[in-house]
Design goal:
Length: 347
Amino acid sequence: MTIGILDAAPAIGELASAASLQLSIVVPMYNEAECVAPLMARLREVLAAYGRSYEVILVDDGSRDGTTQAILAAEQADERVRGVFLARNYGQSTAMQAGFDAARGDAVVTMDSDLQHPPAVILEMLTEWRAGHDVVLTVRRDNKSLGLVKKLAVPVFYKALRYCSGMDVRPAAADFRLMSRKALDALLRMPERHRFIRGMVHWLGFETSEVNFLAPPRFKGKSKFTLVRMIRLARDGLLSFSRVPLHAALLFAGAMMMLSFLGTTGAWMAFHPDGSTGWLILALILGAHLAGGAAWIALLAFSEYLARIHEQVLGRPLYVVRESSADLRGSEATFSLNSRESRMEVA
């Protein structure tokens, strides 16, 4: 097998500007085979009244059920559907990024596949876009289907993010949003690997509007947004947009070391003014453990930032595409977030 590297691939923005599509809808999917057909039926029903050209990009994020086959069937039934099939499960943010790279429309909408993001809201978002807003967010007004942990943890996280970064990211804002081509191209120029997209879109600073919606019950399956993924997302958000965690860890370590020194010295002087050393040694050992633990916390925070720098310097592709609707012959393509360039390796 020979591998060729196409360094002269056109820039993402150049591909988009040459297209005549007005709307791209990006849907990341992971084990959502049962949702593909109902989603497409509902999208066709809603967008029939739109009267403009559109495409639907279904990104299979390494699914292990029949999602790949369901997407291929949707492609055959509707030429406006394009599938992107990732080599493994990279996570929702990366799958969304793969859809962004493939999108050709003047406006790009992202949404979930389980129909909790009502397709009818897309028409309201398009109205706001035509009114001059480059970013249209949707705000979910109900949280009855959210678990207790999410109800309690989500507001705390966004308050912490607002305090640490100064960005007022709405807790109820969903990944159901519209971006203009201008806003999307600006997002694609941001090269970081750990992509907290909600924060990145807010950081861009484009003219933003909001549309409220009520989420219907999930069509099929269960949420893939587990507690572990929620913690990872919170970590990415805080570390990507603030150095406060690092500074706080260092200050905590310094404060604990000072307290341990003062505490052990004071305890020895208070209880053993005669100068005996037994209790002093014990107090010093306890103080050393306390200070050492605080120092380890600071070291872990520093290591996390350093590891992210290391990953960025390696320059590995953010994701690998196993195949796409443009080439279903077994080719493998890798896209690197290096400025606006795409690099493709073809087997």
